[in-house]
Amino acid sequence: MVKTGETYINVGIATTGKPILKRTDNNTILKNQRIGLGFHWERSIESILPGEVIVTDDPVYQIINRLPLETYLQSVVGSEMNPDAPIEFLKAHAIISRSWAMGKIIGADTPKNEGKIFSPDLILNWEDTCDHHSFDVCADDHCQRYQGIQHFNPNIIEAIQSTTGLCLYSKSDQLVDARFSKCCGGKTEVFSSCWQSHEQPCLESFEDPWCDLSTLSVKNKELVLKSILKEYDLDNNGGYRWETQVSAEDIKRNLYTKFGRDIGDIVNAQIIEKGASGRATLIRLIGSKGSLDLGKELMIRRLLAPTHLYSSRISIEKDTHRPDIFKIKGSGWGHGVGLCQIGAARKAIEGYNYREILSFYYPGSEIH
Ligand SMILES: [Zn+2]
Ligand SMILES: [Zn+2]
């Protein structure tokens, strides 16, 4: 249990140029919070910041907002989740977000680059939230989206307050690295398929029957999907099953622009290693000038699509009529480790409480 009166988080907030601040009786108004860093929707917004606000200019202007952890959670859960989602699902998410934030505050992260390989015939790489040095978390999507207190909503406040201080722990009392993704596709994945090569407690691979929405009525299916997704497609069931294709030319271009490698024209692409859920973790590319193995799951998703494939839980097959086209059949949306949001929202709608939801998705975990 987190000591809620004493636990504070330091949030680093980017600004567009020199911070423009207006102090009010209780809060500080920041006129130029910079959001969407590096994305096409990058812009400045006004945000209302509770707690202490410190301006730094080393090496660039930014704000450090020091505020109670529980207030921070009201903001981030409110901006990441649909406030109309089932309350037990929101409570489960509040506990996950709190566990994640506590991990950042106490610095529980393991070294990020351990095990990465960049050699002529192998790229083994992944991304993770890196450690920030002068604050605990940033305010952008890199960590969790924090835009001050305008996202407060009664359902979100109830979800945070009714779980105040609660986090997920392993049996040996270690804070659980509570990962989550949109849809596991029917089976969850282990940590080592996506990040460093060790395993983490309570992140296991098991069958998840809950994210298959095909047997639900249209009304209930919509209820589940709109809990998680801003825009959704009833036909793909939140990424449960999908199909796409990629050309040899696309793979060649992606390999060069995203990974800086040129192995000539792509002759074949084959999955050579899979994780526990069937997610591809290593793919072998045969080119006219050489071959290259590439992993882990996020890198494979980047290689095979203009931005990302939904997931790497895929099969790849050459089109029998056009050998330069690879047909991909996939399932799941995201890395599939830890909680499956579509499955968890469905469980909440079917009457399971947050404790039942979390003990299903983080086997062996305890909440206290
Ligand atoms: Zn960050
Ligand atoms: Zn699932």
Question: How would you sum up this structure, described in words?
Answer:
This protein has 368 residues and is α+β, with helices and mostly antiparallel strands. The protein folds into three domains: 8-166, no CATH class; 169-239 and 334-367, no CATH class; 242-330, no CATH class. The protein is 24% helix and 25% strand. It has eight helices and 19 strands. The strands form six sheets. It has a five-stranded mixed sheet with strand order 7-8-15-14-13. The protein has a four-stranded mixed sheet with strand order 5-6-1-9. It has a three-stranded antiparallel sheet with strand order 2-3-4, with no helix packed on it. A hairpin with a 5-residue loop joins strand 13 (266-274) and strand 14 (280-287). The chain is globular. The N and C termini lie close together (5 Å). The relative contact order is 0.15. The model has no long low-confidence stretch (mean pLDDT 92).
Brief digest:
This protein is α+β, with helices and mostly antiparallel strands and 368 residues long.
How many domains? Answer: 3
Query: Radius of gyration, rounded?
Result: 22 Å
Q: Strand order within the widest sheet?
A: 7-8-15-14-13
H/I helix tally: 8
Number of strands: 19
Q: What structural class is derived from the secondary structure elements? A: alpha+beta
Q: What distance separates the N and C termini? A: 5 Å
Present as ligands are: zinc ion
β-sheet strand percentage: 25-35%
| Helix coverage percent | 10-25%
SSE arrangement, N to C: EEEEEEHHEEEHEEHEHEEEHEEEHHE
Mean pLDDT: 92
- Largest sheet report: 5 strands, mixed
Low-confidence stretches: none
Shape: globular
